[in-house]
Design brief:
Length: about 240
Amino acid sequence: MTRMFGPMVLMASVLLVPAPASAQVGAVVTQPLAGTRLDISATGEVTRVPDMAVITAGVTTQAASASDALAQNATRMERVRAALKRAGVADRDIQTASINLSPQYKYGDNQPPLLTGYQASNQLSVRFRDIRSSGRILDALVAEGSNQINGPNLTIDKPDSALDEARAKAIAIGRARADLYARSLGLRVVRVVLVSESGGYAPPPPMPMAVMMRRPESARTLIDPGEQQLQITVAMSFELQ
């Protein structure tokens, strides 16, 4: 019995919903199909050890007047900045994240709010390029007056080569999957009709805020880099005959 295959479309895995043009890289072939079209979604994954930690460190102070709260804050922040410089953190890796000044009130039953003073806070976003020494630096910051720590957000400084490896894996998986479908149908892959990319590297969100207090000398802050997964997903269309 002779089997006949018209110009039909086979769907494999989940067909991707097109992302905005700015988020996709696509190559489209406009030559008409003479056989069967097969659409496949494939994901390539690689793992890397993070090599940079981004941490927000700062000082919160309270005083009876706004000017005193800011002055005390500025004095302690100078000590924090000096500690970062002594630890070898470059100027390009230190950035002001926020400066806030707000009144503080005491609330009582059936009483108008009573102004009790002012709170000032100054936060720095700091990039540590040596993750394993960043915990020691944070301990030094606390010793110099920092009482607010937020993070860490562990990232990969230059993920391009890892993402290219994930792309190659995704393409190889997609092509192998297409060959499997073609063999199962008694056909062969003639050409690739379309390839589009989505996904990529998104650093994980930072850990919740932690208030750092002065601790015994024997206690040390440790940051473990672990591993991060990078993914690239491609949508591929093939012509089978």
